[in-house]
């Protein structure tokens, strides 16, 4: 759905990747209207039955019985960092059967709202990724250097679950092409908010909200938030 000179199809896998893990992408409605979102690229890399996208803010058992069943399945994981989360590498070592993984797609505040206001999402085992790589999605601002886009999270998670590093490289390929095209046509590299604050480059007014101001102080002092 892009002009031919910036078409991303040549950077997608010729055939959808064969994976046993099924992804459920819980997408905040605001993401649908974003031009440079990553979930369509992710979906183009995977078979339709392995990447299911549900759009909304609130999910209950009456309206989403299939999702409720998935959340109650002991093999289901939800990718959301926090004190209660286990590193995905540890879970993958113990898992041999096909799994289902839920990933929330939105800004960090939107994802937090969805996670905490939907009790279904606290039923699956909570997992997180080790902060070992920096985001390549340089055309959107992230809170910290190790905050990843939805596509990057899925790429890393699938490579771990499927025990196949090439999956990560294949899924990241169209994202790298997207960023390259955008930068060639006038887009600017977006450093993380953490980078801007630490280097005195943050040029927006500091928030008056004490909670938001505290979060910025934690970023500057490299404290996990």
Tell me what you see in this structure.
- The protein has 225 residues and is of the alpha/beta class.
- It has 2 domains: 181 residues, Alpha/beta knot (3-Layer(aba) Sandwich), CATH 3.40.1280; 31 residues, no CATH class.
- It has 8 helices and 6 strands; from the N terminus they run βαβαββαβαβαααα.
- The protein has a 6-stranded parallel beta sheet, sandwiched between helices.
- Strand 1, helix 1 and strand 2 form a beta-alpha-beta unit.
- Helix 5 runs antiparallel to helix 6.
- The chain starts with 21 loop residues before the first strand and ends in a 5-residue tail after the last helix.
- 25% of the residues are buried.
- About 3% of the residues have low confidence.
Quickly describe the structure.
It is an enzyme of class 2 (transferase). With about 220 residues, the protein is α/β, with parallel strands linked by helices. The chain has eight helices and six strands, in the order βαβαββαβαβαααα.
Report the C-alpha radius of gyration, rounded.
18 Å
What's the CATH C level of the largest domain?
Answer: Alpha Beta
* Largest sheet strand order: 2-1-5-3-6-4
Work out the count of structural domains.
Answer: 2
As residue ranges, the low-confidence spans are 191-197
């Amino acid at each position: 759905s892009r002009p031919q000179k910036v078409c991303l199809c040549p950077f997608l896998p010729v055939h959808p990747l064969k994976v046993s893990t099924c992804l459920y992408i819980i997408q905040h409605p605001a993401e649908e209207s974003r031009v440079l979102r990553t979930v369509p690229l992710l979906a183009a890399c995977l078979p339709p039955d392995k990447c299911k996208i549900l759009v909304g803010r609130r999910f209950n058992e009456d309206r989403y019985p299939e999702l409720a069943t998935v959340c109650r399945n002991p093999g289901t994981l939800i990718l959301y960092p926090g004190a209660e989360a286990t590193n995905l590498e540890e879970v993958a070592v113990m898992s041999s059967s096909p799994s289902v993984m839920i990933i929330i797609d939105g800004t960090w505040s939107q994802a937090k709202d969805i996670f905490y206001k939907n009790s279904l999402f606290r039923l699956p085992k909570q997992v997180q990724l080790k902060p070992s790589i920096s985001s390549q999605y340089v055309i959107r601002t992230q809170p910290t250097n190790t905050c990843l886009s939805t596509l990057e999270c899925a790429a890393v998670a699938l490579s771990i679950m499927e025990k196949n590093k090439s999956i990560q490289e294949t899924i990241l390929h169209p994202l790298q092409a997207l960023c390259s095209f955008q930068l060639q046509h006038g887009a600017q590299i977006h450093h993380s908010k953490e980078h801007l604050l630490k280097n005195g480059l943050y040029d927006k007014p500091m928030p008056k909200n004490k909670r938001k101001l505290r979060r910025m102080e934690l970023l500057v002092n490299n404290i996990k938030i």
